[in-house]
Design goal:
Blueprint lengths: L15 H11 E2 L12 H12 L8 H10 L4 E6 L14 H9 L6 E5 L13 H11 L5 H4 L6 H15 L4 E6 L5 H5 L11 E6 L19 H9 L5 E6 L6 H8 L2 E4 H7 L1 H14 L4 E7 L21 H14 L1 E8 L9 H24 L5
Parallel strand pairs: 2-3, 2-4, 4-9, 5-6, 5-8, 6-7, 8-9
Antiparallel strand pairs: 1-3
Helix pairs in contact: 1-3, 1-7, 4-14, 12-13, 13-14
C-alpha cells in the first residue's frame, strides 16, 4: 500500500510559537534562499549584511521574523528566488538579489527568502520518495513526524508561508520579489480564498496573457497562474491586464472566453500615462472592486527599460505608465498585495541594458512599497 505523507496542520490550529517555528524553517535571510555551499556563499552573506545593516548570521532567522512581526508593520518584503517555473529562459532566481543590492538598505521590513530547491517546482509534481529525501536534507534536526508535514517545493513552501502569515499577522501586506511569474500564484491564491472575493480585482502588467489552463501538462507555472487566479475571481472582468503584445490569440478571444479586461500595449501608449491610469481606475470602480492585487511582470515594460528578463518584448509600456497606474490604484483602492517578477539580470549581455533593467525594477519596488505603506487615502 502506498505510504501517504501527513498533511500540514491548519495554520489556525497552531500556536503563535509553532507558526513562528515553521516560518523559521521555511524562510532564510535575504539573499540566502538560493542554496550555496562554497562558491558565492561569502558574497551572498556580505550582501545580506549590507542590505540589513546589523545582522548576526549565528542568530536564528526565526527570531528576526518574530521581532519583525511583533512590530506590526503594515507591509513587508518577501522574496521567492525560483525560476523553475519559467518555460523559456531561466535566470529570474537572481532578480531579488539584484533588486536588493540596487536598493541599498532594506526600504521596508524584509522577511527574507523562501528557501528554494532549484530542481523542484510544485508539490503535486513530486514523487513521495523525493519529497521525503528533501525533507530529510532540509530539516534533519526535526522530529520525523513533523518533518513529513512540510512542503519542499518553491510553490508549496511559498504558499505555506503565505497561509502561516495570514493566520499569524492577517493585517500584514506582502510585496513579493520573484523569481519567474509562477511565484505570484502561491501568494495570491490564499488571498483569493478569503471572504469578499467578489470585491477583489487584479491589475496585471505583462507582455503576455499567462492565461493558459496548463502548459505541456503543467498546471501552475509562469504561463498559467493568471488563468487560475481569474478562475478564483470568477471572471467578470475583475482581472485587468495591461501591456499585452505577444499573444497567439487576439484581445477579443481572451475577453470573450475568460471574461478578463485587457489594455494592449499599443492602446496604452496611445492613451498616455495619465489617461491610462484613469481608465484602469474607472474600470475597477465600474466592476465594484474595493481591494486590488498588483502583479508586475517586468516584461510588460518596453525592452529598452527591461531587457534583462526571459522574454523581453519591444513596443511596451514606459516606466512612467506603470508607476502612474500603481499610484492611481493605490489612491483609490485597498491594496492586498503586490509583486515584481521576471527580472533576470544575467540574461542581458549588454551591461548598460542590464543596469537599466535593474534600475527599472528598483523604481517599481520603491513605488509599490510606498503605495502599500500609505494605503488608500481616506475620503
Amino acid at each position: 500500500m502506498r505510504e501517504l505523507l501527513p498533511p500540514s496542520p491548519d495554520p489556525g490550529s497552531l500556536s503563535a510559537d509553532e507558526r513562528l517555528d515553521e516560518l523559521g524553517w521555511l524562510l532564510r535571510p535575504p539573499g540566502q534562499g538560493i542554496h550555496t555551499v562554497s562558491t558565492g556563499k561569502r558574497e551572498l552573506l556580505d550582501k545580506t549584511r549590507a542590505y540589513l545593516g546589523e545582522f548576526d548570521e549565528q542568530r536564528a532567522w526565526r527570531e528576526h521574523i518574530a521581532e519583525l512581526i511583533a512590530a506590526k508593520p503594515k507591509v513587508a518584503i518577501l522574496a521567492i528566488p525560483s525560476d523553475t517555473g519559467a518555460g523559456i529562459v531561466r535566470g529570474a532566481a537572481r532578480g531579488p538579489e539584484a533588486i536588493r543590492e540596487a536598493l541599498g538598505r532594506a526600504p521596508a521590513p524584509d522577511l527574507g527568502d523562501v528557501f528554494c530547491i532549484p530542481h523542484l517546482l510544485d508539490e503535486p509534481m513530486l514523487a513521495m520518495g523525493q519529497r521525503m529525501r528533501c525533507q530529510d536534507a532540509l530539516w534533519p534536526e526535526l522530529e520525523v513526524g513533523r518533518r513529513r508535514t512540510l512542503p519542499v517545493s518553491p510553490v508549496g513552501m511559498a504558499e505555506r508561508v503565505r497561509r502561516l502569515l495570514l493566520a499569524h499577522a492577517p493585517e500584514l501586506t506582502l510585496f513579493t520579489l520573484g523569481g519567474d511569474h509562477t511565484v505570484t500564484w502561491p501568494v495570491i491564491a490564499p488571498l483569493l480564498e478569503l471572504d469578499r472575493v467578489h470585491e477583489v480585482g487584479v491589475v496585471h502588467f505583462d507582455a503576455h496573457t499567462d492565461l493558459l489552463p496548463e502548459r505541456l501538462g503543467i498546471r501552475i507555472c509562469f504561463a498559467t497562474w493568471a488563468f487560475h487566479a481569474n478562475a478564483l475571481l470568477g471572471g467578470g472582468e475583475r482581472m485587468i491586464q495591461i501591456g499585452i503584445r505577444a499573444s497567439a490569440r487576439d484581445r477579443g478571444h481572451w475577453e470573450r472566453e475568460l471574461e478578463v479586461r485587457q489594455i494592449w500595449a499599443n492602446e496604452a501608449i496611445e492613451l498616455g500615462a495619465e489617461v491610462l491610469a484613469k481608465r484602469v481606475v474607472e474600470h475597477l470602480h465600474f466592476r465594484g472592486i474595493r481591494r486590488v492585487y498588483v502583479s508586475n511582470d517586468i516584461d510588460g515594460t518596453d525592452a529598452h527599460w527591461a531587457a534583462a528578463c526571459g522574454t523581453p518584448e519591444p513596443g511596451g509600456l514606459t516606466p512612467a505608465m506603470v508607476v502612474a497606474v500603481i499610484q492611481a490604484v493605490g489612491r483609490e483602492f485597498e491594496l492586498i498585495g503586490a509583486d515584481l517578477v521576471e527580472l533576470a539580470p544575467g540574461l542581458s549581455l549588454d551591461r548598460e541594458a542590464s543596469a537599466r533593467s535593474i534600475e527599472t525594477a528598483a523604481l517599481y519596488t520603491r513605488e509599490s512599497l510606498a503605495v502599500l505603506a500609505a494605503g488608500k487615502l481616506q475620503e
